[in-house]
Write a structure and sequence with these properties.
MutS, DNA mismatch repair protein, domain I, Dna Ligase, domain 1, globular, alpha+beta
Length: 426
Amino acid sequence: MKALVDCNNFYCSCERAFQPRLDGRPVIVLSNNDGCIVSRSDEAKLLGIKMADPYFMARPLIEKHQVTVFSSNYNLYGDMSWRVMETLRQTLGENKVEVYSVDEAFVDLDNFSTTALWTAARNVKETVEKWTGIKVSVGAAPTRVLAKLANRLSKKDKLKTGCVMVLETEAEIKEALRQTAVEDIWGIGRRYAQKLKEQWGIFDAWQLRSLSEEFARTHLGGVVGVRLIRELKGMISKEMQDPLVTKKMIATTRMFGGPVSSIDALKEAVATYASRAAEKLRRQRSAAGIISVFIIAKQEKNDTDFRGSMYGKELTLPYATSFTQELIKAAVVLVEQLYQPGKQYKKAGVILSGIVPDLQVQGNLFFAPAKNYNRKLMEMMDNINFSQRDDILKFAASGTSRNWKMQRNFISKRYTTRWDELSEVR
């Protein structure tokens, strides 16, 4: 049996863990630059506050109901995520847990008998909540797709299910499939869902499961669709159990806290984004052979073509690399080519592609690798920055004042990673 452990309204739960007075009150968390709503407590959902709504549009409703607002505090959320995953590892075993996202993990419950599955699922939930303060839901079933489905159903009526759902028998699975709309199935996107409903009258997961593998191969993306149908039927697909696939493209993009007109500020921002992308690259033990940079200018009042305000260039590197300094050097060159004096810019981004394993980098007869490359130095920087956050160690090209950084007007304390921001007991 597989189980999906999913943190409920994760960002909001992290804020509530250190401010218990917010329990039972509506809470929301905003995206970068306090732009859109990215997390809502159940109370906020009941008020009609929608996911991804722009903050300025939802503000009247927020102020009317005195909703507590937070800016995204990635230092806190990243550390709390690590604590949740580490709790699962200590409870179930290191090799029984696979982290799927910042707030989700698949766990293996094969060691538990059928009669003990409900107890095991509840124990996992209670242990995580007791050790970390983060509320979670647990859905268990024979396959990952069914576990995802069970987890979703566990949250539809939290009082009734206690946020735990175990699908053991064929009858339980059949009923769960009938309760799940086709667009709510893991792996079925909006386009496929619309196509299934309009062309073939497939409206729920039970109807989808009844389709043949040949139909899935023809109309649902080939082998991917076949795996999905098999998983809905309770047949474990090995490909869906493998660890997450190495990314073929890595991007870091951000809106600025305010319009940027200086080329120096633009270079600092792009150098910072290149550093972050390089960290992601090293995390999956890869190197990139192509770097792209784009910048978006603030739209002029009379400009009706938004596409005209975006500029981008790419550069093929002499050899694939994951060394931050080499990537920053290339990114800054591209900024110099893109920058237009007199314009104000609101966003920039760095994209790495041509990704290969870092131990299989193809050499270049005409360019020698950087002599100052030191893999251990990069690993040390990554470890320190991960534990301390906020780029404690950085290249000078990234700047020091960083006036272009995104706005976070409602940021909470970094309760778990800063001595001077620990919670105070009075």
